[in-house]
Recover the amino acids of this structure.
C-alpha cells in the first residue's frame, strides 16, 4: 500500500490515508468512521 500512497502523492500532489475495509463492511456497517467516509470520501 505504500507504493499506492506514493503514486497518488506524485499524481495528485495529495497525501492520503489508506485503510483497508471490505466492500461489504463499507456498504453495510454503521460505524461512525465508515458513515463519514461514505458521506465525505472521494472516490479515486
Amino acid at each position: 500500500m505504500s507504493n499506492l500512497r506514493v503514486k497518488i502523492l506524485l499524481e495528485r500532489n495529495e497525501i492520503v490515508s489508506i485503510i483497508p475495509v471490505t466492500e461489504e463492511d463499507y456498504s453495510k456497517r454503521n460505524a461512525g468512521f465508515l458513515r463519514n467516509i461514505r458521506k465525505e470520501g472521494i472516490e479515486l
